[in-house]
Amino acid sequence: xxxxxxxxxALLSMQAPGISVFNKYDPLSGxxxxxxxxxxxxxxxxxxxxxLIKADYAWQxxxxxxxxxxxxxxxxxxxxxxADGAEQxxxxxxxxxxxxxxxxxxxxxxxxxxxxxxxxxxxxxKDGSRDMTVxxxxxxxxxxxxxxxxxxxxxxxxxxxxxxxxxxxxxLIQRELTRDGVLVRRETFDYDIxxxxxxxxxxxxxxxxxxxGKTYREQH
Length: 220
Hints:
Sugar-binding protein; 220 residues; YD; mainly beta; RHS_repeat
């Protein structure tokens, strides 16, 4: 094994039974330019600002492939084409937060609240087979308090709501799940004076089961 001290000990070469690796680096930036070994070859291409813009692969037993990406000056990816040719595009809002990601089959849109927490995420299948919107709510201390999941398909719609209640010390005391207005499951939690959970109780028509099919209702 050979390393380059000037690059923080970056690997230059390694040889062992059945394994060989030889790396080349940019002499000025220290970025990896080429990695070649018994499994094949990879070449990395960098922008003047130091962002990886393309990687070429030539692995043994596979056809040559390339992965490319376009980035903003701050390094955020705006377009990515993976080694299989699938393309993704990303958009950002005025504060630099991801607002939309488009792939070959799915588009994801994200909005934020005033505290830059995710407020809503919508996932749409491009063929119209599924449209799901998740809306998040938080309590006054920023803890997750409500999660609404609305799902639409060509044949049905559903709304699932999960709510959570917390103690002042950050311990979860109740979690409730409903589906289309009907209770699915309610969970309550109790703790000892040291904050350790001592009771976890569940109620409702849909309760988890163990490996033997026994319904789980309470744990001490």
